[in-house]
Design a protein that fits this description.
The chain is an alpha/beta fold. It is built from 5 helices and 16 strands. The chain has helices at residues 31-34, 75-81, 117-126, 163-173, 185-197, and strands at 3-14, 19-25, 40-44, 53-57, 60-62, 65-71, 88-95, 108-113, 132-138, 149-152, 159-160, 178-182, 201-205, 221-225, 230-234, 241-243. The strands form 3 sheets. A 7-stranded antiparallel beta sheet has the order 4-3-7-1-2-6-5. The chain has a 7-stranded mixed beta sheet with strand order 11-10-9-8-12-13-16, with helices on both faces. Strands 14-15 form a two-stranded antiparallel ribbon. Helix 3 links the parallel strand 8 (108-113) and strand 9 (132-138). Helix 4 runs parallel beside helix 5 (185-197). It is globular. The model has no long low-confidence stretch (mean pLDDT 93). The structure holds FE2/S2 (inorganic) cluster.
């Protein structure tokens, strides 16, 4: 059940010019209360004029502290990047569904792009996955983070090229049973096409503009296949995790 709480910003860490991490200390001690991999919170910006909330995936939970990795991508996230330690922040969550629990013997690939890194970081650490390989892609060295295989469009770090090209190459010589992914829609669509040829199940964490974050406004609907044709589902409540084969990516 989601709940609203006020935490205190205890640390703000700059990763680079585009990304930062907020550590928010709460009054709750149990990890399971605060969220599962794939879930997100709606963060309210203190003293921001319209009390706007921004949906942000959980990056890390340690005891009573929850961390969010955030990309500066507009007025709201820029505002969050300028908060000072000690400020009180109202957060609402955990929201949305969660990634499935990986089977211990399954060979697993994690594939992220850009800020899609955050939920997969939580996923990998939460389940302490040793049988996984993590690929991450970004435009340049400012958009990539620590993982097993890094891809940049401009070759400024890791392997030059798209992470989806890396996936095709990887699958030529490795058996993979499940892919967990989060990132730009175009990247996840391509991952699903490639995975489909290899009969690999994909769990994709979708990103959509969200207003309420609780399944009320229907501002975040996507088309999901069903037996007849398709139905609309909300990314914030029914998702954000969907099976890749169910998503109608072109809409
Ligand atoms: Fe309102 Fe999803 S954001 S229904």
């Amino acid at each position: 059940m989601p709940f609203e709480m006020t935490g205190v910003l205890v640390t703000k860490s700059k990763i680079n010019n585009n990304y930062f991490i907020l550590d928010i200390k709460t009054q709750y001690k149990l990890n399971s209360h605060l969220g599962k991999p794939g879930q997100f919170y709606e963060i309210q910006m203190p003293d921001f004029p319209n009390k706007l909330r921004i949906p942000i995936s959980i990056f890390k939970i340690e005891k009573d502290t929850i961390s969010f990795m955030i990309k500066i991508a507009g007025q709201g996230t820029d505002y969050l990047s300028k908060l000072e330690n000690g400020v009180k922040i109202n957060i609402l969550g955990p929201l949305g569904n969660e990634f499935s629990i990986p089977e211990t013997k399954q060979s697993i690939l994690l594939i992220s792009g850009g800020i899609g890194y955050a939920p997969l970081f939580f996923f990998k650490n939460h389940f302490n996955l040793s049988n996984s390989v993590w690929m991450h892609g970004g435009r340049n060295s400012e958009e990539v983070f620590n993982c097993d295989l890094v891809y940049t469009d401009d070759g400024s770090e890791g392997i030059k090229g798209y992470v989806t090209e890396g996936l095709e190459e990887y699958l030529d010589s490795h058996l993979v049973e499940r892919i967990y992914t989060c990132g730009p829609k175009i990247m996840m669509k391509r991952i699903c096409e490639i995975a489909y040829k290899h009969q690999i199940k994909v769990e994709a964490s979708l990103e959509e503009y969200m207003a309420c974050g609780m399944g009320v406004c229907y501002g975040c609907v996507v088309k999901i296949k069903n037996d007849q044709d398709f139905q609309y589902k909300t990314v914030c409540k029914d998702g954000p995790i969907f099976l890749g084969e169910e998503v109608i990516w072109d809409e």
